[in-house]
Amino acid sequence: TRLEAHSMESITNQEIANVYFNTHASRTLSLANIQRGLMTQSLIKPVGRMFYLQRCGVALDSARAGVFSHPACHTAPARVFRTDSFLQVSGGWHDAGDYGRYVVPACKAVADLLLAFRAAPEAFGDDWDIPESGNGVADVLDEVRFELEWLLKMQRDDGGVYHKVTCAYFPDIAANPQEETADQFIFPVSTAATGDFAAILAMAAPLYESIDRTFSKKCLRASINAYEFLKHNKPLPFHNPSGVVTGEYGDECDADERYFAACALYQATGQAYYLTDASALYQSGRAADFGWADVGGYGNAVMYFGPRNCEDDILAGRIRADLLATADHICEHTERSPLGISIGAFLWGSNMYLLNDTMALLMANDIQPSERYLAAARSHLDYILGNNPLGVNFITGVSENSPKHPHHRPSAAAGAAMPGMLVGGPDEGLHDLAAKTLLAGKPAAERYLDSVESYSTNETAIYWNSVLIYVLARMSKLDA
Ligand code: G3I
Ligand code: 9MR
Ligand code: ZN
Predict the structure, then answer these.
(1) Which residues pair with 80 in a beta bridge?
(2) If residue 146 lies in a helix (H) or strand (E), which one and from where to where?
(3) 221-269: pLDDT as tens digits
(4) What spacing in Å lies between the alpha carbon of 282 and ligand 3's midpoint?
(5) CA geometry: angle at 51 spanning 193 and 395, to 5°?
(6) Contact present, 395 and 44 (Cβ < 8 Å)
(7) How far apart are CA 53 and CA 166, in angstroms?
(8) Pocket of ligand 1 (CB under 6 A)
């Protein structure tokens, strides 16, 4: 093949993509894993750079960001909803195709990226062409720190964490970041946001210890403060107040966020206090719960994979059994599926659910290496990269069959799709007008539109890219 004719270094991403997809076009050919390995490796940087391109509150220069450069956006102090106080909460990543900054999905994104770095540090370079590149720290950690600095601003003195900062409405689809100048509001504290925050800051503390001790301590203090808030408060679910239509990310159940926080704080401190809570809060059957609302899988992963050994053998045994049983279950679905995927329904963000299952498979493979788990994981990744009924590669800018018209404001404004973004994928629920109008007769797996109008199938989000990063980082090594 052409791949063999080149030395690895001289192959461009586009060439790898071409070879990959030409080979793949027949769908009957099984791909050489090495090709997939090269493909996945070549995608880590563009998919990782999406986070940089989503940065809020700072200017993106044209040398790095090209047509997506912009002056600092969303820098005005935001009003604490229904009060007269204003806070400076600039920074962090825009969530998606909109410019909201929401704590709950932000924490899923950070958890994925930190787990990816923990599991495959060698997959992450210091060369993502972001402002911190070349500083001796893996760029994925620089990027995550950018988000953490914002998250720290979202915490109140009493430990509670505000749910989100957004305007009341979404701006026009072609609005640039700096053009969204409507008033921003900081919405009430929720226990889902507070629990997720406690968890990911506890995950971060040990990882940043050797990079910046002061910062690491700050993360841990903030995490403990958030945890104590949880201990003293009953569930505080978030609902959009009337007149506010930006993303809700509501979650009625915070038991899993409390569990995730307890697990991560045990790992960061080694204290029995947190281990006791984690054991009491553990729920079985949550091993693939890596959503923005359901985070039990993260608690399990953090507790089981360290850095500290879980001193409660019963809990460790349960997590292990649960993860393996879940992985077996995922494989059964994938092996039965004509599409080679595990998901039985196509919800909004279906690609994320598939990749969440893939993450569970790769974690199970760490416990018990299995060709079965890897075969299913490869099949899922092939689906994302184009082996699906529509023949669409769901990552922008990768190949000719990548989405061209994502529901993503900077892309709409620039007239070009920002590269390296995973779109949501088919949503059988027909949640937007374009989908309702054009997709109603289609099978569920084909309810996808490469149209800027279709926010329920063709939007992009930081927490979809993050789990893709986890899978790419792991698979690039497994298939190397
Ligand atoms: O939980 C129910 C489940 O019980 C039911 O079986 C299923 C089938 O109807 O629906 C499930 O609820 C879905 C929910 O997500 C949880 O998965 C809703 O139908 C679905 O509409 C909802 O979609 C969310 C969407 O916002 C609308 O709220 C997506 O998960 C979420 O990713 C998306 O996030 C948006 C933000 O609001 C704004 N920023 C962009 C971002 C990405 O599109
Ligand atoms: O553009 C919005 C997108 O970022 C959100 O994910 C989506 C769901 O909350 O809503 C989009 O905004 C649409 C709004 O909900 C309804 N009117 C059309 C808007 C799209 O321009
Ligand atoms: Zn912004």
Answers:
(1) 186
(2) helix 139-153
(3) 999 999 999 999 999 999 999 999 999 999 999 999 999 999 999 999 9
(4) 37
(5) 110
(6) no
(7) 19
(8) 95-96, 98, 100, 247-248, 347-349, 429, 431, 455, 459, 461
